[in-house]
């Protein structure tokens, strides 16, 4: 398979070997059905690679595309933060979050988080900064930053952060945040949802079900009510909604 630097040619009529970018050996395989038009199938998708099959007429030609995802993304982030992104909190926070998630480039990520906070102090970037400091083993600084994040957090932000911790398999840490949500915002949707998750984790499915129904009744949108209904259904079946 030949990859050419020229992407405007029609067929191989103007092919010039000097314009080759890459040649790889591949093993074609017969297709079960004829393809009248050229197709590319992308399978086995991973963060740094994908399996591609070129399909045309009676042959399928498989090959793998791999990228240094982290380095390329970092280059793109740096380029964007030289533009308008440097003047708003979101882009800087997203760049810092990318590094935090991958556990790479944490010193630069810390500077991006600082710049984001300087542009506009929000729970989002303060919690990002606190997590970066924790990853850098600066626990005292992390605690100070996290306490500031807690001061300005609303119920939804805290609840969403706890759910993020759960997705990262940090269940104990998530439960501590749910307890704070339930204590600080006991009567709202997210306070009730937090209570439901706390009781569900303890095996109190009846109590969790009651809290989930209260959350559903207080939910402002049909979409949110429907989402909570899925939790109610699981609790009625005595399933832990934290798993």
Q: How are the secondary structure elements laid out?
A:
Elements: E1 2-4, E2 20-23, E3 29-46, E4 49-66, H1 69-80, H2 89-102, H3 106-119, H4 123-135, H5 139-152, H6 155-167, H7 171-184, H8 189-201, H9 205-218, H10 222-236
General description of the model:
Helices cover 56% and strands 18% of the residues. The chain has 243 residues and is α+β, with helices and mostly antiparallel strands. The strands form two sheets. A two-stranded antiparallel sheet has the order 1-2. It has a two-stranded antiparallel ribbon with strand order 3-4. Strand 3 and strand 4 (49-66) form a beta hairpin. Helix 4 runs antiparallel to helix 5 (139-152). The relative contact order is 0.05.
Structural class: alpha+beta
Globally, the shape reads extended
Order of helices and strands: EEEEHHHHHHHHHH
Are there runs of 5+ residues with pLDDT below 50, and where?
A: none
Largest sheet: 2 strands, antiparallel
Task: Give the radius of gyration.
Answer: 25 Å
The rounded distance between the terminal residues' Cα atoms is 46 Å
Task: Provide mean pLDDT, rounded.
Answer: 94
Give me the side-by-side strand order of the main sheet.
Answer: 1-2
Strand content bin: 15-25%
Number of strands: 4
In brief, what are we looking at here?
56% of the residues lie in helices and 18% in strands. The strands form 2 sheets. A two-stranded antiparallel ribbon has the order 1-2. A two-stranded antiparallel sheet has the order 3-4.
């Amino acid at each position: 398979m030949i990859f050419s630097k020229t992407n405007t040619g029609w067929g191989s009529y103007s092919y010039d070997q000097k314009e080759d970018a890459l040649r790889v050996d591949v093993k074609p395989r017969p297709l079960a059905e004829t393809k009248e038009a050229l197709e590319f199938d992308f399978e086995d998708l991973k963060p740094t690679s994908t399996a591609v099959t070129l399909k045309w007429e009676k042959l399928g030609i498989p090959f793998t595309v791999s990228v240094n995802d982290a380095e390329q993304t970092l280059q793109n982030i740096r380029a964007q933060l030289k533009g308008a992104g440097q003047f708003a909190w979101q882009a800087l926070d997203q760049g810092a979050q990318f590094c935090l998630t991958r556990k790479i480039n944490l010193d630069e990520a810390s500077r991006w988080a600082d710049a984001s906070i300087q542009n506009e102090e929000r729970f989002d970037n303060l919690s990002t900064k606190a997590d970066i400091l924790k990853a850098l083993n600066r626990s005292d600084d992390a605690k100070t930053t996290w306490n500031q994040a807690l001061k300005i957090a609303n119920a939804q932000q805290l609840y969403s952060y706890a759910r993020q911790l759960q997705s990262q398999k940090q269940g104990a840490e998530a439960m501590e945040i749910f307890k704070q949500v339930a204590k600080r915002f006991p009567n709202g949707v997210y306070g009730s949802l937090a209570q439901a998750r706390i009781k569900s984790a303890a095996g109190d499915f009846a109590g969790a079900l009651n809290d989930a129904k209260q959350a559903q009744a207080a939910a402002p949108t049909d979409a949110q009510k429907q989402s909570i209904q899925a939790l109610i259904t699981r609790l009625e079946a005595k399933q832990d909604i934290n798993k």
